[in-house]
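I hope you will forgive my troubling you with a question about protein structure. Here, with my thanks, is the record as I have it:
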Amino acid sequence: MALWGGRFSSETDKELTEFSESVSYDKRLYKYDILGSKTHARMLAAQGIIPLETAKSIADELDAIEKRIDAGDFEFKAELEDIHMHIENALIEKLGDEGARVHSARSRNDQVALDIRLYLRDVISAMVEGIKDFQRALVDQADKNGDAIMPGFTHLQHAQPVLFGHHMLAYVEMFARDIERLQDCRKRVNVMPLGSGALAGTTLPINREMVCEALGFERVTRNSMDAVADRDFAIEVLSALSIFAMHVSRLSDDLILWCSQEFSFVELSDEFCTGSSLMPQKKNPDIAELSRGKTARIYGSLMALLTLCKGLPLTYNRDMQEDKEPLFDAIDTVNRILRVYPPMVAGLEISRDRMLAAASDPALMATDLAEKLVELRVPFRTAHHRVGSFVKWCRENNKALHEATLEEMHQTIPEATPEFLKLFSPESSVAKREVTGATGPEAVAAQIAFWKQQLAEL
């Protein structure tokens, strides 16, 4: 009979047992469940609810159970439903009624809320470190190849010359925001729900603040009904992971394009590519493609949990057991990305010549012409129109912009001086963009220095 079976007169149907079990996936919470139970038992003893010797016996046996699970010497059974029941059942098997005292003043409702919060605190901390490693790989690439010039794109059209390092650092900024989101989210994860009971608290004289302090939470939950019904913190984690995955997917798009024969800007190490089962010549950027694809999977986890919670009346409902699989899957997926992507970025080789050639189209310096006119006090919209007319004239006369003479330029840009004819160099264009945050060599070097310092300190 199940630990909750006193009210029932027959055994649970086998199909229901298989349908309702969660230990196949929530067993990963065992260390947190044991930590929470040990702390809870100490508090119960301190409050005189259970004998001190019982609390010590419970703690010792919980340590032994943890070692058994660590060693793979612990049997998980579907009929015991979840990790909480497995650990409590093992306690009772060893300690009898004394082990059964551990569940005083708590419910699996507040117990699982505690376990997930403890788990997510560690997950967030580890992921933040993983994202920092990702940032370091990007900063190293920016440092190594930061002076390589390539075309920047808008609408996937060549727009203006930029430094390769500048492009890499754009993703460093994105990942910095991801870290901020995760760290901010951790504040709402780090709230202690144990002691809320099933939904209404308890009549026993527990000390929630003692448990809160012992487990390193910032505060206790203020409303017992909200405490067991709340999964906002898990949704928020999934939202942050979805945004991170979106950033990885955008980087993947860039790398996939750059690896193509049409671009040939970069080459990935053979270690991080695969071939074709049919075409011997193929070298496919599979990590980038799979990461782009797995982003959809992470989005699905977020949508699953949002949909799960949207129609639930207060407080706990068994539907909420379904929160763990999408949450765990998204976490596992992001962790796999964080293991393979940074070393792939670190081994990236670029083709400076191909990048520079693509950035050398003089049309990419059209904005430089317009801004030169602004320096001569021509209103920007007038300057924009005149340079646009010059580009049109060149196209109609089958001339590249840098091939036009000063006299020809004067047909559409009457203010042009001989200096205008020297504005078609990508090196010159990049070199003049030294405002803070821009793509000039000194500006990019300052960005690199900033991130090196930041990532060294963190």
